[in-house]
Amino acid sequence: MSTGRVAVNGCISAQRGSVGEFPTREITAYVKARNTATKGTNVSYEAFFRVVDGGHWEKVGSGRAYVGAGESIGPVEVGSTTRVCGPVRVEIRVHARADGAAWSGWSPAATKQCQT
Q1: DSSP assignment, residue 37?
Q2: Which of 4, 10, 43, 92 is most open to solvent, judged by the fewest CB atoms within 10 Å of its CB?
């Protein structure tokens, strides 16, 4: 997705863990941004999480970063959530806004997008 001359992608990592005998996943949302403009700009971003079947969107984090002209940042951690593993599908999405621009559309976050 893009917001003005700044292109933004969301990505995630999912680490295995446990709480007692219950297996868990620590899901962390990240954002990558690329500024194609000739001026640097501040970019605000947010990440949301939900269980697909009947869940509601919950904010897992937000932040703000300066992205110089022609530069890229990220992956930058936005927030994380720990979930007990179960037979449910979950999703994370991110959006961003450059100074003076509207919020971008939503970008789904996937593990493969975290590759550098």
Answers
A1: S
A2: 4
Task: Please state, in angstroms and rounded to a whole number, the distance separating the CA atoms of residues 95 and 23.
Answer: 30
Peptide bond into 75 cis (omega under 30): yes
Residue 21 gets which letter from DSSP?
Answer: T
CA–CA dist 83, 62 (Å, integer): 19
Polymer length of the chain: 116
pTM (global) more than 0.90: no
Helix (H, G, I), strand (E, B) or coil at 111: helix
Instruction: List pLDDT tens digits, range 28-66.
Output: 899 888 998 899 999 999 999 888 888 899 999 999 999
Question: 24: which 2 tokens?
Answer: 């868990």
Structure tokens at 115: 């590759």
Whether 3 shows a pLDDT value over 70: the answer reads: no
